[in-house]
Write a structure and sequence with these properties.
This is ATP-binding protein. It comes from Allotamlana fucoidanivorans. This protein is an alpha+beta fold. It has two domains: 165 residues, 2-Layer Sandwich (Methyltransferase, Cobalt-precorrin-4 Transmethylase, Domain 2), CATH 3.30.950; 167 residues, Immunoglobulin-like (Sandwich), CATH 2.60.40.10. The strands form six sheets. The chain has a six-stranded antiparallel sheet with strand order 16-17-14-20-21-22. A four-stranded mixed sheet has the order 1-2-7-6, with helices on one face.
């Protein structure tokens, strides 16, 4: 990944401060294909209406070479046939929680993008939003039914030739995996159960995926199917892992694969040994698509709805590339080999 923050500010995104942005705009700045400035101003509407322009810019970066978008920048001024940005910042008046904001941006763009990050900087009750976007392996992306790109230092509708080229460059389908919580209850044996759905979706319009496989692991619970001798071959780790393999020859765009499973567990054991918490880890990939991970943390300490018990979700991290997860964990070739080979 490209560290655009380092290029422009000499530091990582999360280390950028209000003073860094203030100093940045002490001199005239122009936009480029890798940096865009958005002012927040009542003339542009409320938070949601201002956000539309931000999402449009992020979509353009995804379809181009990635870059930095500063929301709360000075108002642009036209000087000698060019637009420059300098001086007083036009800060955003509303705070949007980071994860919620990233979800809002990502959900507005099709196909769902990854590698969008933001640093939210507070200054006397107002806010700067600094976004860093990486070039996407799943472009072209669209927002409000339009493909956007950075052209000549501006966000513009992408011309037909560029959209066609972006479609042709896609090297692997974008497969996304999700878990839904369907029903919670108790069996006559006294055990608790949680019915879940595993969804696999192909978001690449022009590419099918083949030989889809996935694994779902849950330490505190076992899969009810593992108790059935005819189905036991699909479960490992004494029933704590479900393995979905050789069951999907092809996954088409717009035709999700949905698999339902039941988790069975003891609530007292969950409380005593796991602090009422449960983790689900879903790893998946296909013949052409890279391995991804979606993991979920559930909290059973509060009231639980019988139907659609989504209140159990404590946290979700979905569709993270395995390579990105390895980087987060600090995994290197050397320590991975040491762990595997035990030498």
């Amino acid at each position: 990944m490209t560290n655009y923050s380092q290029q422009y500010f000499g530091k990582d995104l999360n280390d950028i401060t209000y003073e860094d942005i203030l100093n940045f705009f002490k001199e005239e700045k122009e936009e480029s294909d890798k940096i865009e400035f958005k002012a927040f101003h009542p003339d542009f509407g409320d938070f949601s209406k201002n956000l539309v322009g931000v999402i449009r810019g992020i979509c353009a970066f995804l379809n181009s070479n990635g870059g930095i978008l500063i929301w709360g920048a000075p108002l642009g001024q036209k000087v000698e046939e060019k637009v420059v940005f300098q001086g007083e910042l036009s800060l955003v008046t509303e705070l949007k929680e980071k994860d919620s904001l990233i979800s809002k941006v990502s959900d507005s763009i099709t196909p769902l993008p990854i590698n969008i990050n933001v640093n939210i900087i507070e200054q006397e009750g107002k806010y700067l939003y600094v976004f860093e976007t990486q070039i996407s392996n799943y472009s072209p992306h669209q927002f409000k039914n339009t493909y956007w790109a950075r052209l000549d230092g501006q966000t513009k509708p992408a011309p037909h030739y560029l959209v066609e080229a972006l479609f042709k460059k896609i090297s692997y389908p974008n497969i996304e995996g999700y878990i839904n919580l369907d029903r919670f209850g108790h069996l006559p044996t006294g055990e608790a159960y949680l019915d879940i759905s595993i969804l696999m979706i192909n978001f690449s319009e022009l590419q099918n995926e083949y030989n889809l496989t996935y694994r779902l692991m849950c330490g505190p619970a076992i899969f009810a199917g593992s108790r059935n001798p005819q189905l036991a071959k699909y479960y490992t780790m004494k029933g704590h892992m479900y393995v979905h393999k050789d069951l999907n020859d092809i996954l088409h765009f717009g035709a999700p694969d949905i698999n339902t499973q039941r988790l069975v567990f003891n609530m007292e054991d969950l409380a005593d040994n796991y602090n009422n918490k449960m983790t689900l880890i879903l790893t998946f990939g296909g013949k052409q698509s890279p391995l991804k991970i979606s993991d979920y943390k559930l909290d059973f300490s509060g009231p639980i709805a019988a139907n659609n018990p989504v209140g159990l979700f404590e946290s979700k991290r979905e569709n993270i590339l395995s390579a990105e997860r390895q980087k987060e964990l600090g995994t290197t070739r050397e320590n991975l080999l040491e762990h595997i080979l035990k030498r």
